[in-house]
Protein 1
Amino acid sequence: MEHYKKMQCWVILKKMIEGRDGWALKHPLDLKVLEGLSKSNCLENKYELKANMGLKDIEAKLGFYSTPDEFADDVRLVFSHGLLYTWKDDVHKAAKRLSDTFENRWKSLKEEWTLEERRVKKINKRKRESLCPKPDRGQDQTLSKLLKEKATCWLLSKKGA
């Protein structure tokens, strides 16, 4: 994962941990309680319950994610554990608020990253075009000269990419 994306993920995570609702999901929830809640909610997803973690655990793992989506999946997993509590419970309410906030921020971050990637691609395209001048149509050029210019241009674009 690129460093700037990792830092933006860390900022989101830190705000959740230190925010007013961070207390509920900062540390892993009690596995015995979660198992009881999953049975009462007729959930049969034991795999997710075994991967019990809190927001602090995700912070510790942040350097090991290869994509931002892996990070988001783990954050959503933590929220899903909190949402197993009854809707009247403070843990459920905190998980719901954190989840809504996270999803809004995540959506805007993904849009920012997409725009940034487009901008970088556009800049790289301009660089390649500036390295490869277009042949002057008014001049009579031989085929070998044109091929030589194209090959040089291609090599320069590969070095710059």
Protein 2
Amino acid sequence: MRTCSRQEALIPRGASGRVADVVLGALVRDGAVLLARRSPLKRHHPDIWDLPGGTVETGESELHALARELREELGVDIEPGSATHLYRVATGAGGQRTELSAWLVREWSGTPSNLTVDEHVAPSAGSTRDLPEPAHPLMRPALEAALERLLR
């Protein structure tokens, strides 16, 4: 594991040997990635653009949690076979450590819309080359590198 700061670390794929705490989905179509603006009332990382997703529940796989979260938040059904793991990021320290796992999703059905107004202000698609600053500093370079590698 390469540590980038005392509170954050980029984790090599599969290195932790466990299911992540939080899953995120980069829904990508025609060179655009779908982001959701977090509600300004959120306790963690309010009012920023982020990948949609959420907490992995006990007994869920990461893909099952991702499919459930994207259905609940955006009203889309992902095609699990189209999901490719992008990266893992660990944030926090000690007992407050959280492991995030991001996935690239290329196929889904339904039109993304904001079904959780307490979570997000609005979803919006933008160019993968023009991403806003994410919640965690390591996420942007990891996402850009993964998207460049996978979308060539």
Protein 3
Amino acid sequence: MDIEEVFANVAVAFEAIGAFAMVVGFVIAVVLSARSLNRKEGGAQAFSVLRSTLASAILLGLEILVAADLLRTITSKPSVEDALILGLIVVIRTVLSMSIQIELEGVLPWRRAMLTSGGQMIAEAVSRDVAASKNTASGTVAVSKNTAPDNSASTQP
């Protein structure tokens, strides 16, 4: 097995991991949303949880798929056509990732103070769910953090 085959197999593995991350993220988003509804937090909160968690999962999957595309450059034949196709795929996935981040955070990625990956956002959603479950079990009412940005007073172009 030569080095090109190894990198081709690694790229395929990354693609599978990226797709798996999106599927698992979808399941997590549905479960968290259902748990939110079960705690009687309201449909708007459940939708917000579903939307932000699902977007985070897609963002994580896209980041992994871009890594797979970059690995694929190692194994691709050095033709202009292949390079342009691969470059176009990376650009599309990057623009998609940026638009999802802007939708989730309400800020341009280069303007936010702290970089947050899709995986970190999913972990935060799970942490909020665990905290809300503990508060519900102990009988206290938790004020849930709104995960959807309020763009009503935004001054951004």
Protein 4
Amino acid sequence: MSGFGAYEIELQSLLAGDLASTDPTKFASETQTLLEQLKLESRNSEDRKATTAKYKQLKADVDRKVLLGGGVPQGAQANQARARLMQTNDKLENQNDKIKNIQNTVAEIEDVGGEITTQLKANREVIQKQQDRVKEVSSMADMAGKITKRMSKWWA
């Protein structure tokens, strides 16, 4: 039996096992090591094309096993995972509520700011009109003062 065949049998026996009862880190490490050996053996094989294709198929099987069949918590682990998921969902909902409240507050602040800006504009217009009136009255007072001086020269 070639080295490729021995590694292939060992990898298939790992894949046939129950991943839920094994340590996922150990499983990943062992399969990665075997896949590396298979890759080396496929390069050195006489029928390189067939062994490379077989290697790629085994790698896909390992990936599928890890993604679909592995890491599914059982019993207490499932309950813990479910509890963590519920806590995370609750935290996310709370954060979403806080964000919505903040957005509402910001919208209210923007509305108040707009109202203040409008009021300031109206106040500025009133002040400008009053300044214009003061200038007008001041110029009238200056003119009245000049007229009074001229009149006082007549009577003096």
